[in-house]
Specification:
Blueprint (H helix, E strand, L loop, with lengths): L1 E2 L2 E2 L4 E3 L8 H9 L5 E7 H5 L3 H5 L10 E6 L3 H13 L4 E6 L4 H4 L11 H14 L4 E8 L5 H12 L4 E8 L10 H10 L4 E4 L5 H11 L3 E4 L9 H9 L8 H19 L1 H14 L7 H8 L5 H18 L1
Parallel strand pairs: 3-10, 4-5, 5-6, 6-7, 7-8, 8-9, 9-10
Antiparallel strand pairs: 1-2
Helix pairs in contact: 1-11, 4-6, 6-7, 7-8, 9-10, 11-12, 11-14, 12-13
């Protein structure tokens, strides 16, 4: 699988998720088998006007390579400048957000709002493409109605303007994450363009990824919410693609939690990391016996040592009862 000049080891990609795919989480996804990881969406305005908070979203480590950084905005010149900054910062791929439907993003004309304005969309895509040498991709939704016509138009436009791949989440802007993703649109786009098409949406289990590939012919699969708390889904998908099965035991599950905790403490500092982990570690225990008790205890952690102690106690209880 290639995206422009970037060769991927396999066909699984970690989706960009606001507030989730920071550096510590991307490292987990990469170690768990994802061929490509993506940053949280980064404001072009924030980068160009030197917001320290925005600039920090570009932090990276060699271990997560290749890395895609997703930028959003509606001003072609600002998007071009932001793209140059991202390339200079070491990103291997630049992705343009055409899918965010959060009101504060839409009101600036960014995200899914660009799917309503093909002329503006073309200007943004062209400006970014001309500004950098690394591959450029876009991530879109179905558009603003269920017909998918918006997506088909933007996909054709993206190819014409030199995009190296397109990721499609076939839900409308108004759906958010509700309802069902219409995979038929992924297949339709795949039939109508020649650049790689990355399918996204409703991959909740490893078998869903295999089914998406079979039903749509997409070149790669992008996993978002299903990887939250379960990054090893990437290894499970890869095993299924080879006709095998990858079983996950308790020790592996807790080893990932500990690594996530330690990476977060190292990156954010102990105090900030513990505040984050109070909710994040809860993702990883969903469905386990006694998880509600663990979730209550973890919401009060104030140190790495305390969190590690709770994790150790919980896995000992689970192993004893197994």
């Amino acid at each position: 699988m290639r995206i422009g000049s970037v060769k991927l080891d396999n066909i699984t990609i970690m989706a960009p998720l606001a507030g989730i795919t920071n550096l510590p989480f991307r490292l987990l996804a990469k170690e768990s088998g994802a061929a490509l990881v993506c940053s949280e969406m980064v404001s072009a305005n924030g980068l160009v006007y030197q917001s320290k908070k925005t600039e920090r979203l570009l932090d990276s480590l060699p271990a997560e390579k290749p890395l895609a950084v997703q930028i959003f905005g509606s001003d072609p010149s600002l998007m071009a400048e932001a793209a140059r900054m991202v390339e200079f910062g070491g990103a291997d791929i630049i992705d343009i957000n055409f899918g965010c439907s959060v009101k504060k993003v839409l009101k600036t004309g960014s995200g899914a709002a660009l799917m309503k304005d093909p002329d503006k969309a073309a200007a943004v895509i062209t400006a970014v493409r001309q500004a950098v040498n690394v591959p450029v991709t876009i991530k879109i939704r179905s558009g603003w109605n269920k017909s998918g016509e918006d997506a088909l138009k933007i996909a054709a436009l993206a190819q014409e303007c030199g995009m190296d791949a397109i990721a499609i989440h076939p839900r409308t802007a108004t759906q958010g994450f509700g309802g069902h993703a219409d995979w038929r649109l992924i297949a339709n786009i795949k039939k109508n363009i020649s650049i790689p098409v990355i399918g996204n949406g409703d991959i909740n289990h490893p078998a869903d990824a295999i089914r998406m590939i079979q039903e749509t012919g997409c070149n790669a699969v992008m996993i978002g919410r299903a990887a939250i708390g379960h990054p090893l889904i990437f290894k499970q998908i890869l095993a299924m693609l080879s006709g095998n099965q990858y079983d996950i035991n308790l020790a592996q599950r807790f080893a990932i939690m500990i690594k996530y905790l330690k990476n977060s403490v190292k990156y954010f500092g102990e105090k900030h990391a513990c505040r984050i982990m109070r909710s994040r570690l809860c993702w990883f225990v969903k469905g386990l016996p006694g998880s509600s008790r663990f979730r209550k205890s973890i919401t009060r952690i104030s140190s790495e040592e305390e969190a590690l102690s709770l994790l150790k106690s919980y896995i000992e209880i689970l192993q004893k009862d197994a």
